[in-house]
Amino acid sequence: MSIGLIIGGGNPESRQKAAEDFLEKNTGENAVPLVIEINPEEGKNEIGIGDVRKTLPLLSLKTDQHQPKVLRIKEAGKLSLAAQNALLKTLEEPPDNTIIILEVPATDLLLPTVLSRCQIISLPSGPAPVLPENEKKNAGRILSWIAEKNIPAGFKLAEEFSKDRAKALRLIDQLILAAGQNLRQTSNLETVETIRRLQQTKTYLSANTNIRLTWENLFI
């Protein structure tokens, strides 16, 4: 069996149990899978394209013909846009005897192109994560500034967040979530580029770059 599988909803424990139950039913009683995981690096809040690219070749390792290979991403909601795109070809044509499992609290956190290449197991859960109305409105306003290259508004915002890295990162997460929801509704290529730039900004901020200059660069 070769398959891409998304387990969405529930909580980490229920998603793990669903994954283990699936593997037990689909890898044979006596088969011991070769399990490979991709997790965020220590101190980082996302799984980047580099993490995916360095792991995918492991799926081509020669194993006993009866030993399945399993790639598990337990925090698939933290995959960056670029990392998700890097998975597409492998999800479409998994290597022989390979199961790829993405575990995510809400399938809305994944691109439609990822969803379309996988079977989906939906677990009971609360509503998909959404921004509160005030945060959604604020995020929409800032996203429009980015699209319009509204430099005065952007620079004023950069000054506001110049001394609070945690607050700046929280806002970036809100913008990524809002832009991702827009992308799933419109599939607009400009939104794809905006998400790429937001992900890049988040990476820079996480690496202790100058907060103000990093924010300002979004609006140029």
Explain the overall architecture.
- The chain is of the alpha/beta class.
- The chain is built from nine helices and five strands, in the order βαβαβαβαβααααα.
- A five-stranded parallel sheet has the order 2-3-4-1-5, with helices on one face.
- It is elongated, with a radius of gyration of 19 Å.
In short:
With 220 residues, the protein is an alpha/beta fold. Helix content is 51%, strand content 13%. β3, α3 (81-92) and β4 (98-104) form a beta-alpha-beta unit.
Q: Report mean pLDDT, rounded to a whole number.
A: 86
Order of helices and strands: EHEHEHEHEHHHHH
Do you know the CATH architecture of the largest domain? 3-Layer(aba) Sandwich
CATH class of the largest domain: Alpha Beta
List the helices and strands and how they pair.
Elements: E1 3-9, H1 12-26, E2 34-37, H2 49-55, E3 69-73, H3 81-92, E4 98-104, H4 112-115, E5 119-123, H5 133-148, H6 151-160, H7 165-186, H8 189-206, H9 211-218
Helix pairs in contact: 2-3, 5-7, 6-9, 7-8, 8-9
